[in-house]
């Protein structure tokens, strides 16, 4: 867009040319001697001065399209003010709703935003009440202008609830969800949900809701207590008729932090969200967690069930995957500890991290309702250099599967000073199949002995790896399935071996690495004895060929008894 001054010069030149042309076509006298033309020219120039004056006093937002900088300006201004907690002045009838009563309030699909325009995306809204007693503001952006989406009780079916709708004016919404024909062109599936604090969840093709993401994590697992920032206002761009993505802006606020966010979501087999953020601190925090992910792990193949359960495994995610800038890929299986445990991986400019659900066979879960085998993994890929910091993993004890007890995020070594802007961006992918990397992946971790003639005080862990890529190539070549491209030397000339390390709280009794004939991969088995039962054990293991590492690094925290 032209600046106001340049635009005004263009208008003045056009007016002058029009006046000269009009006068010249009817009067051949010099312009200065043409009284009508002279009057017109003076009037036009006065008009130009008035228009220029109007442009000079209008704020930028008056003639610029709404965008991220508008939200960032709001966040910066908020950071310079004292925090005002969001109002939860809802009618008593809404606050007193129980779980079933709240669920009986449903948005009417026929009222979906953009349905009448037959756009590829649709928007549905959540009613405030129960836990969601701090409504958020929602605006729609069309043609560069933002307009508020006011509360309308006609959007909802209240079921058996008997509520006085006259008390529900201007109460706002508790959040929203986005629908899109993700799995079928005949139906718009629920794709994305923003509801509660700064939490949101999304799906790719063939997935069921599982883990969540957040805008920011403040002092997670710090004794002073965690602070939960909230998205207090949203601006959602109206999609075009053939849009394959949707853009959402959000304003974050809490006692010690404010922030501006832009989410550009593109649904598909692997749904991606490009996230841009600018954060301001009102005051210092002990731990600033960027791109946080929140999940649930109750029990799995590496951890015995606390109580009898017909389901072999119960979890939304089974491991943390970390990609370092040095090329190392680290896999840390999750555990449900008896007490809070926090671990981290120090890195410089990480390539990515995520909470993953690797076990995809239904037989691992046997749950026909929860469909844990369809829960998505979430992968964070930083844009630009994030500098020095750590990927932190928080493991919280949980007695059942109703509580999210796993949190992972990036903690910068140098957080911003209060009032200083912190800019960061990343791509967040919701996926079933992990992006391939050149190393053999960990397939599973299992705990326990087989038959023991004489039980003792040792423990055993079994770790299964995929076949390293070059070995796969050789086996395929031997079967005539490889391409004519040059393959590596026969596997027999470069045998695969295993490397295992444990910290000082463990004594390794025996270790073995051998071919797993059932998977075509490799199995590592090691027996060890713990020295202090009240302390955890850090472990690392990987496959190597010669001196070269050919697998992920299996990094395990063996919890205290």
Key features of this structure:
about 40% strand, Beta-galactosidase, Chain A, domain 5, globular, 4 domains, disordered N terminus, 6 helices, about 550 residues, 15-stranded mixed β-sheet, ten-stranded antiparallel β-sheet, mainly beta
Description:
The strands form 5 sheets. The protein has a 15-stranded mixed sheet that branches. Strands 2, 6, 7, 8, 9, 10, 15, 20, 23 and 24 form a 10-stranded antiparallel sheet that branches. It has 4 domains: 4-62; 66-209 and 222-285, Beta-galactosidase, Chain A, domain 5 (Distorted Sandwich); 292-414, no CATH class; 442-558, Immunoglobulin-like (Sandwich), CATH 2.60.40. It has 6 helices and 33 strands. With 561 residues, it is mainly beta. The protein starts with a helix and ends with a strand.
CATH fold assignment of the largest domain = Beta-galactosidase, Chain A, domain 5
Distance between the termini: 65 Å
Shape: globular
Helical content band? 10-25%
In brief:
This protein is mainly beta and 561 residues long.
Layout of strands and helices, then pairs:
Blueprint: H1 4-24, H2 35-57, H3 68-79, H4 92-95, H5 99-103, E1 106-107, E2 122-126, E3 137-142, E4 145-148, E5 156-157, E6 175-184, E7 187-195, E8 199-202, E9 212-214, E10 216-218, E11 230-237, E12 246-253, E13 257-266, E14 271-281, E15 288-295, E16 297-299, E17 314-315, E18 319-323, E19 329-333, E20 341-348, E21 352-356, E22 377-383, E23 388-395, E24 406-412, E25 421-431, E26 442-447, E27 459-465, H6 469-478, E28 496-502, E29 506-516, E30 521-530, E31 537-545, E32 548-549, E33 553-558
Parallel strand pairs: 3-11, 19-33
Antiparallel strand pairs: 1-5, 2-6, 3-4, 6-7, 7-8, 8-9, 9-15, 10-15, 11-12, 12-13, 13-14, 14-25, 15-24, 16-17, 18-19, 18-21, 20-23, 21-22, 22-25, 23-24, 26-27, 27-30, 28-31, 29-30, 31-32, 31-33
